[in-house]
Design a protein that fits this description.
2 domains, 6 helices
Length: 143
């Protein structure tokens, strides 16, 4: 097995940054949350770092968690497998067959982890959910 050189690490980091920023991180939802965290922790691709800072981050991350490079490498392989298939997956899921009354509903929930959580945006989303529920509950009581 070949060792990950600094240049290869930087190339992979740039590809992850591109996927996250330009593609909207779409394929990341196909990974398990722990795989996403491994990529974030090892590559720090959502942080603006110079090449030297990124290499220092890589060394520090590997020193703090010796299995992290291997876990991130596996996650990167999974991402490379899923990324080209994402649109096929979404297309297959969006055309729902007609469901017979009383039949079980299949629900698939995917997640995307984000180490740079915007607390104001999250609070706004939660306020909107509460308002919507209050509106719905008030509507139900009036009917």
């Amino acid at each position: 097995m070949t060792r990950l050189t600094n240049q290869h690490y930087l190339n992979q980091r740039n590809q992850l940054t591109e996927e996250w920023k330009v593609e909207g991180g779409g394929a990341f939802i196909m990974l398990k949350p722990n795989e996403q965290w491994a990529l974030h922790d090892f590559y720090a691709f959502t942080e603006k770092l110079t090449d030297d800072q990124a290499i220092r981050h890589r060394k520090a991350a590997a020193a703090n968690a010796s299995s992290l490079p291997q876990r991130a490498g596996r996650a990167l392989s999974h991402l490379a497998f899923f990324a080209p298939r994402l649109y096929e997956f979404v297309a297959a899921r969006t055309i729902a067959p007609k469901r017979a009354k009383g039949a079980k509903t299949e629900l698939l929930i995917l997640s995307e982890v984000n180490p740079n959580l915007n607390a104001d945006k999250m609070a706004s989303i939660l306020r909107d959910i509460v308002k919507e529920r209050q509106k719905r509950d008030g509507h139900d009581k009036a009917a």
